[in-house]
Amino acid sequence: MARNKHPEETVNLILSTAFRLFMKKGYEHTSVQDIIDQLGGLSKGAIYHHFKSKEDILVAVTDRMTAESNQMLAVIRDRSDLNGKEKLKAIFKESINRPVQNDIFTVAPDFHNNPRLLFSLLHDTIDHAAPKYILPIIEQGISDGSIETDYPEQLAELILLAANVWLNPMIFDSSEEESHRKFMVFSQMMQGFGLNVVDEEMLARLKELTSIYSIRKTSSR
Amino acid sequence: MARNKHPEETVNLILSTAFRLFMKKGYEHTSVQDIIDQLGGLSKGAIYHHFKSKEDILVAVTDRMTAESNQMLAVIRDRSDLNGKEKLKAIFKESINRPVQNDIFTVAPDFHNNPRLLFSLLHDTIDHAAPKYILPIIEQGISDGSIETDYPEQLAELILLAANVWLNPMIFDSSEEESHRKFMVFSQMMQGFGLNVVDEEMLARLKELTSIYSIRKTSSR
Fold it and tell me: How big is the CA angle at B11 (ends B9 and B15), to the nearest 5 degrees?
């Protein structure tokens, strides 16, 4: 690789390569040398110019994994045409529909070899995404009367834990039917909190996604 | 250590020591040699006589972590004097009350250095404990009319994910007040599913436990 490439491109290439190797071999079994070997001539010095350590690369990979999703959450959170409950509904619809999901499902079959990535995702969900994106929406909902709860922070956490972790087929293997049934229970949980945010269209889209995932899994094993 | 000790005692000592080191230094930063160094003269051969690898020790440590809890779940599951909903209530009461909790809270301050243990616990909860202990109780509840759901497997998973992972202060740092608020949301979630299983006595016990945990944390940092 030419040394004079734009540094952002180099960083992107390092992160894509690292992500692919982490998912394939597992974080613990991927060395910095393994990443370098896939980069067509980039020197060890060049990679250490951008990242202090493998741990540092992991943090950047996790940030990139959630960056696009967080961007979408921020846009909906900041809309001025929806009440709180409508924003929650918009988020679930968007999460299921955004096209990047297809890529993620294809590139990243599972977290089974990757406790470190799962750990990062779990803590990012609870410690970062829930308070930053879901909490302000619930608080708006309390103000505008569309959501009722005395525990907005905790409700935000529980909703996002269920959505990002339990419903995530990269974390828990589920057949198409199982995913559908999990989504029904999720929808009932939301209704139990007075939040009717899941509709038929979303269920149909979920079915489509779980098929893509099942095909990928079958062909890679 | 004498070679002629009962092998079960040796295994127990290896597992306690490994658990303590995994929690303190993290699984990845603990070597088999570190474990041996703490065992007062046990040879490398002796440890490999019982465990093929560090991974093998991890599996046994996780099994031991959940063995006592699983034993309690099995006893309640098999009681003949309670209906399904009463069994769920008994489980939550017992989980909060059983004295071993105090030890766990004291010995195991957190999972922050331990993605591998968290990963094992998460998968054990969803793939093993939910179908084996909670599902039969929900199915009984459906039969006896005390629980209503079309999705018993998924409801079992969601309940146990929330209880074992989200409410677990070893996984997510929570102040006493936060833990109490999480428990209130958990209780509302259960009510949303028609499951009124949390009472005032349980809330009081939870408060007591979170104090023990807070003291331990303050003194160790």
Answer: 115
Q: Tell me if A158 and B191 make a contact (CB, 8 A cut-off).
A: no
Å between A88 CA and nearest CA of chain B: 17
CB B117 within 8 A of CB B111: yes
Instruction: For chain A, list residues whose CB is within 8 angstroms of any CB belonging to chain B.
Output: 28, 115-116, 118-119, 122, 126-127, 149-151, 153-155, 157-158, 161-162, 165-166, 172, 178, 181-182, 184-186, 188-189, 191-193
Structural domains present in chain B: 1-51 (1.10.10), 62-220 (1.10.357)
The string of DSSP letters for B58-89 reads HHHHHHHHHHHHHHHHHHHHT-SSS-HHHHHH
Rounded to two decimals, the pTM is 0.77
pLDDT in tens, A175-193: 778 888 898 899 999 999 9
CA distance A21 to B107: 35
**Which tokens hold the place of B90?**
């008994």
Name, in order, each residue with C-beta under 8 angstroms of B194's C-beta and a sequence gap of 6 or more: B147, B148
| Chain A partners within 8 Å of B122 (Cβ) | 118, 122
Binary contact (B118, A116; C-beta < 8 A): no
Interface confidence (ipTM) of the complex: 0.77
